[in-house]
């Protein structure tokens, strides 16, 4: 145990698990806490998640490696999981965000409607009872 005042950055990839085979199986099946492979979770990421949860007085949080992953998870978690949900979005988006909305989400049954952020009434017209969110980027690609 160290007395470091900052969380260390763990750069290793794999972790050794202690305990009997049942406990190790539980860790791999996400039934018990533990670290198996850094792309799934590591001590540094877990510390960040716990601190975010504490700041927001939540029970937990999830840290991901990119904004694209965060956008995807946010939208998918708002979805009912049924074909027909839709997102109303600005057409002025980062190229990969546009691709995520118009291609990836389409394969999941989530459609995208565009609305001009310079004309708020276009958003109002595009919204229906299956709209799960409005999406725009503050600083978008030109």
UniProtKB/TrEMBL annotation:
GO terms for biological process: cysteine biosynthetic process from serine; L-homocysteine biosynthetic process; transsulfuration. InterPro entries: Cys/Met-Metab_PyrdxlP-dep_enz, OAc-hSer/O-AcSer_sulfhydrylase, PyrdxlP-dep_Trfase, PyrdxlP-dep_Trfase_major. GO terms for molecular function: cysteine synthase activity; O-acetylhomoserine aminocarboxypropyltransferase activity; pyridoxal phosphate binding. It comes from the Bacteria. One of its GO terms (cellular component) is cytoplasm. Its cofactor is pyridoxal 5'-phosphate. Keywords: Pyridoxal phosphate, Transferase. Pfam families: Cys_Met_Meta_PP (PF01053). Belongs to the trans-sulfuration enzymes family. This is O-acetylhomoserine aminocarboxypropyltransferase. It comes from Bradyrhizobium diazoefficiens. The lineage of its organism: Bacteria, Pseudomonadati, Pseudomonadota, Alphaproteobacteria, Hyphomicrobiales.
């Amino acid at each position: 145990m160290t007395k470091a005042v900052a969380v260390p950055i763990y750069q290793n990839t794999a972790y050794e698990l202690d305990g009997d085979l049942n406990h190790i199986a539980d860790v791999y099946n996400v039934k018990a806490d533990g670290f198996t492979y850094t792309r799934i979770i590591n001590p540094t990421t877990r510390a960040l998640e716990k601190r975010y949860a504490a700041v927001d007085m939540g029970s937990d949080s999830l840290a991901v490696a990119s904004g694209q992953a965060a956008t995807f998870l946010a939208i998918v978690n708002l979805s009912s999981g049924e074909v027909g949900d839709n997102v109303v979005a600005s057409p002025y988006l980062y190229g990969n965000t546009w691709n995520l909305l118009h291609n990836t989400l389409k394969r999941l049954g989530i459609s995208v409607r565009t609305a001009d952020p310079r004309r708020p009434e276009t958003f109002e017209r595009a919204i229906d009872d299956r709209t799960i969110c409005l999406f725009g980027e503050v600083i978008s690609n030109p």
